[in-house]
Amino acid sequence: MATDTRKELVVMKFGGTSVAGAEQLKRAARRIVAARDAGHDVVAVLSARGKTTDELVEAAREISECPDPREMDMLLSTGERISCALCAMAIKDLGHKAISLTGSQAGIVTDSSHTKARIIDVRADRIREALSEDAIVLVAGFQGVSTESRDVTTLGRGGSDTTAVALAAALGGDLCEIYTDVAGVFSADPRIVPEARKLPVVSYDEMLEMAASGAKVLQLRSVEYARNHEVRIHCRSSSDDGPGTLVVSEQETLERPLVTAVTHSSDEARVTLTGVRDEPGVAGRIFGALAEANVNVDVIIQNEPVSHGDGADLSFTVEGDDMATAVDVIEGLGAAKGVETNDEIGKVSIVGAGMRSHPGVAAKVFKTLGDEKINIEMISTSPIKISCVIDAGRVPDAVKALHAAFELGEGAIHEEDPTGEHRPRVGPDDEGAQDAA
């Protein structure tokens, strides 16, 4: 009877700091080879080295105040190709076969949205062919090719994560290892909260909310892709062999703490439209135009007109880099009398699957921030997240206060609640208990 001799596939992704210098890149090569020596088929996705992408962006802006998006993608895609070619050289010096591929050579097919393209298909025949010949395959992350325009496209910041997850899904791998300069996903940014705790496991939904709220460990779209294709992610350190954080389905998470983490973002901007016409379809026109311009909108608040004939006020938040584009789009519509902006805002969020079934969480968040004299300007919620838009300068204070209030640190004492879930121990004055960078 024939036996299945197919090796288990491992997809390994290395971030920019993990391949920044010659020694870091050689360390990554040794780690890749170790996985191959353990009997696995190996596909490795590499980011551009260190600050290469930032330097390329700066070079473009030295030439043009508004660089052409197509040419920008041609420029930015070079960084990952350099990493892959150099790593292939290092692997060959270690006695193994290796081949480096661009995103298009690897079969990463995208739409035609330059600088923020989305993967629509993975045609990985060339990768499978190389694996069948016992080669280690190195794929340039962050990039693909549009079938419509046949142009090189890039996937946006952190896009190499999405490349890795997409390849794992297409090739039948059930685990994608993401190697970074941190040991995993933490209960808060350790640079702000030194006692932040490394989380052994988080659910896809929690990680999605954390990434959307400012956690930089994993790109939002990579987690979304992993959830949709049931690819387990292991986020771990490139400098040691210790376990990191597994991102898995909620059914695989044994504990559901009230709050898992506190996340934050200081790269936010608010756009306020004044005198918006009070008629059906206006909001649809506004946000439809923003979507067409690839502007991702987060928190939205609208105030109804005070009296008949008055215009409404409509505020929303976007990433800081998208503020100018958003303003141009809005002014082009003529749907409001005025447009105001504020790029000195931040966002702090708490995330936890256990929040679904516990009242009093929002009250505790608002009381904690109030005690710190931190004014809340906007609020957004989901079943497992509460986000508050605040002054950017107070974001670190808010993160520390919420992390302490919900006892998320290494030394926190947890107790079992009647449903069998774990939650932070609540003091006598707390009415209800209830993110990662």
What does this protein structure show overall?
- This protein has twelve helices and 20 strands.
- By secondary structure, the protein is an alpha/beta fold.
- The chain has three domains: about 10-180, Acetylglutamate kinase-like (Carbamate kinase, 3-Layer(aba) Sandwich); about 270-345, 2-Layer Sandwich (Alpha-Beta Plaits), CATH 3.30.70; about 345-425, VC0802-like, CATH 3.30.2130.10.
- The strands form four sheets. An eight-stranded mixed sheet has the order 3-6-2-1-9-11-12-10, with helices on both faces. The protein has a six-stranded antiparallel sheet with strand order 14-15-13-16-18-17.
- Strand 7 and strand 8 form a beta hairpin.
- Helix 1 (about 20-35) packs across helix 4 (about 80-95).
- The chain is globular.
- The termini are far apart.
- The relative contact order is 0.11.
